Amino acid sequence: MFVSNDGYFGEYWDFETNTYYLRARHFSPRTGRFTQPDPYWTIHNMQFGSSSVIRNGRPVPNRYAIMQAGNLFVFAINNPIRWIDPSGLRIELPSDTTQEQRDAYNRAITYLNRSEVFRGLWQTLEDATEVFTIAFTYNHFMRFDHETRTIFWDTTSGLIMLDGAAIQSAALGLAHEMGHAAQYLEGHAFFDDMTQDNRALLEAENLRRFESPIARQLGEPTRARYFDDAGVHRMNNSTHHRIIYTPNWNSRSPFAGNSRIPMTIDINWRR
Ligand SMILES: [Zn+2]
């Protein structure tokens, strides 16, 4: 089918993938994104096109080439929070993500995927038409910004539970913020009216539907209420967490009779 809208004239609609076919990559009208990296434009042809017109001994800039190649620069150098490489995923990493951050993220996602509740949450975000971006931080301050649809994530920030011993993994913090993203997708009115009370209700719902069930399925500690935490702790990696084990006083376990003080067990989850 010949199409002439969106300025992508002369290109072909691909019925198989519901995308416009532009040379070697696809543009999806659903997401407004290219679904493959662009292998066509290079530093050599982005100004003058492939078959340069020579006038007075100099190549004439090709307007079409500049406009199209300009998209490359939009993807590459615009605000990395909003524009990232067009992977086609609904959750994307900024173009300046380091390998270490990428590894921490992949490790966290692989770990979280052991939870059925998380897999449902993940599917919700992947089915969305809006794109969410992960912004990496190192200040323990995780949050979801609904205006830019950005999840601020500290890859090694563990949340200390109220007992001062058990610690949730940074991965669980990521799941928590993704829970807020899902709440946002559901059109939660609270995001536009973030009073103290509404915030508390939003957090309570997050704990009930996302954080706590995911934590339980992963064997991580849970908090009864949103403010039931005792601070933050720098962890070894994105999935590192700590649970407390309270020995049964009368049991024959190796811990029996040792102490009434709960033991702490560090868990460094491995893929
Ligand atoms: Zn929250």
What report would you give on this structure?
The chain is an alpha+beta fold and 271 residues long. The chain folds into 2 domains: 12-77, no CATH class; 91-267, no CATH class. 29% of the residues lie in helices and 21% in strands. The chain contains 5 helices and 15 strands. The chain has helices at 63-77, 99-112, 116-126, 170-185, 196-218, and strands at residues 12-14, 19-22, 25-28, 33-34, 53-55, 58-60, 91-92, 132-137, 143-145, 150-154, 157-161, 167-168, 229-234, 241-245, 263-267. The chain has a 4-stranded antiparallel β-sheet with strand order 1-2-3-4, with no helix packed on it. A 4-stranded mixed β-sheet has the order 7-8-10-9, with helices on one face. The longest helix has 23 residues, at 196-218. The site of zinc ion has 4 residues, from helix 4 and helix 5.
Task: Chart the SSEs and their pairings.
Layout (H helix, E strand, L loop, with lengths): L11 E3 L4 E4 L2 E4 L4 E2 L18 E3 L2 E3 L2 H15 L13 E2 L6 H14 L3 H11 L5 E6 L5 E3 L4 E5 L2 E5 L5 E2 L1 H16 L10 H23 L10 E6 L6 E5 L17 E5 L4
Parallel strand pairs: 7-8, 8-10
Antiparallel strand pairs: 1-2, 2-3, 3-4, 5-6, 9-10, 11-12, 11-13, 14-15
Bound molecules: zinc ion.
The site of zinc ion (ZN) has 4 residues, from helix 4 and helix 5.
Summarize the structure.
It contains five helices and 15 strands. The protein is an alpha+beta fold. It folds into two domains: 66 residues, no CATH class; 177 residues, no CATH class.
